[in-house]
Fold this protein.
Amino acid sequence: MEEHRLEAADRAEKAARDVAEALKEFRLRSADAARLLRALGVNNVLALDETDHRMSWRLTAALKPLVGHVRRFGQIVFPEARSPYDQPWRAEEQAIVGRYISKALKGDMQ
């Protein structure tokens, strides 16, 4: 029994570190994309604070099933019972940013 618990701890640690690395890469790539979009006349849609805000909501939505209706998991406090960010992350980002990229590439930023 203890071995299974410790194996689960190993998997949880690896998954947490993998999430941190993936989010770090997402932030870097978002910053690069924001610079390119600004050069094309698009402002704020990929600003780091906006990107961080969306991803933090998504991360809490992904973790929320861990505790059910409780709003705390140790030091983590979940902001509300349901999140508007519980859809697939890629699809949401594409929906938010895609229209701006399309307009920018067409030179239509009105």
The mean pLDDT is 87. The longest strand covers residues 72-73. The helical segments are 2-39, 48-63, 89-106. Residues 2-106 form one domain.
